[in-house]
Amino acid sequence: MAPGGSALKEVLESTSTGMDYEVKMAKVEVNNNSNNKPTKSSSAGSGKYGMHSNNGVYELLECPVCTNLMYPPIHQCPNGHTLCSNCKARVQNTCPTCRYELGNIRCLALEKVAESLEVPCRYQSLGCHDIFPYYSKLKHEQHCRFRPYACPYAGSECSVSGDIPTLVVHLKDDHKVDMHDGCTFNHRYVKSNPHEVENATWMLTVFNCFGRQFCLHFEAFQLGMAPVYMAFLRFMGDENEAKKFSYSLEVGAHGRKLTWQGIPRSIRDSHRKVRDSQDGLIIPRNLALYFSGGDRQELKLRVTGRIWKEE
Predict the structure, then answer these.
(1) pLDDT in tens, 221-270
(2) β-bridge mates for residue 120, sequence order
(3) CA-CA 20 to 30 A from 236: which of 242, 255, 259, 279?
(4) What are phi and psi of 112, to 5 degrees?
(5) Distance of CA 270 to the CA centre of its chain
(6) Residue 102: closest CA among 91, 110, 114
(7) Contact at 8 Å (CB) between 166 and 25?
(8) What distance in Å separates the CA atoms of residue 179 and residue 208, rounded to the nearest whole number?
C-alpha cells in the first residue's frame, strides 16, 4: 500500500488454463573466480565461451577497499599499493594499507596488463557463461540478459532484486501478493471512496501462464488534471521474451465496454515508466462510476482478460 493510501478491496475469480509450476529459490551471488568449466550459453554479444584468465594479476585488480574490480584510472601510493578512483576520494587521499599520502600516481603498468585479461560476467552464477576482454566487461553487464530483475511490486519502495524464481517467492512471502494459475482472469475491484484518486492503493496479482509469470497491475492516479483508473500487464522476463505473448483487458456495463489489447511490458521497464506511457487499459473516473452503477459513491469495476502466446 502506498503511504497514506486508502483501502481497495479485490475479489478474484480466475479460470485456470495454465500449467502448474515449481518455484525454486535461487541464491543471487557474484562469483568472478569460478573454476567450473562453463557450458555454452545462448546469450548474444561479443563474449567468448571458455575459461577466463585466473592468476595473481586478477587478484591485484581487486580494490582493497571496496573489493570491486578496478578500472582506469587506477591509483597507487609511493609504496605501490593500489586502489580504485572512487575509493581514493573516500580515504581522503591516504593509502589504506601503509597510510602514506596517495598523491596522483597512476599505476599505468597494471592498467596495461588488464587489457590482456579475459574475465567472466559478474552474473555467471545466474546463467551467463561468456567471458570478455577486461575493459568490455562493464559494458556487457549493463545489458546482460542474466542481470537481476528489480522487484515489480509498486506499492512500496522495495530494493530487492534477483532472478525470476527468487522474485516470485519474494512477492508471495514478503508482499503477500496473490498468486494464481491460469491464462484468463476476472477481477472485481471495489473502492468505497472513488473521489480519493491520489492515494489509492496499487493492486498486484501474479499469474502463472504457459509456465511463465505475469503481473497484473490496477491503480488510480491523475492523468494531467483528470482522475483515471488503469490496468496493465507486465511480464516477468526480458523484453524479447515478452514479445512472444499478447493480452487483452475488458471492462464495461450497461451495454457499453472498453477493451485493450497489447503486448505485456517486461519488468525491466519500471512500473512508473509503463504507467506514464499509458500502455494499458485507461478508464476515466466518470466512466468508471457509470460502469459501477448505483449512486456513484462506490467504485465497482469488473476487469476481465486473457493472455495468449503468439505463434
Answers:
(1) 888 888 888 999 999 999 999 999 999 999 998 888 999 999 999 999 98
(2) 131
(3) 259
(4) -70, -40
(5) 7
(6) 91
(7) yes
(8) 8
> Position 127: which residue type?
G
Q: Pick the residue with more confidence: 147 or 30?
A: 147
Q: For residue 186, what is its C-alpha cell?
A: 476476472
What per-residue string of b and e applies to 56-87 under the rule 16 or more CB within 10 Å gives b? eebeebbbeeeeebbbeebbbbeeebbbbeeb
Q: Residue 108 to residues 84, 89, 114, 273: CA-CA distances in angstroms?
A: 13, 19, 10, 42
Residue 277 has pLDDT above 90, yes or no: yes
Identify the burial level of 55 via C-beta atoms within 10 angstroms of its C-beta, where 0-12 means exposed, 13-18 middle and 19 or more buried: exposed
Nearest to 15 by CA among 204, 209, 232: 209
- Sign of the torsion angle spanned by Cα atoms 216, 221, 226, 227: positive
Distance of CA 107 to the CA centre of its chain: 37
pLDDT at 304 over 50: yes
Strand order in the sheet with 184-191: 9-15, 184-191, 299-309, 245-253, 256-262
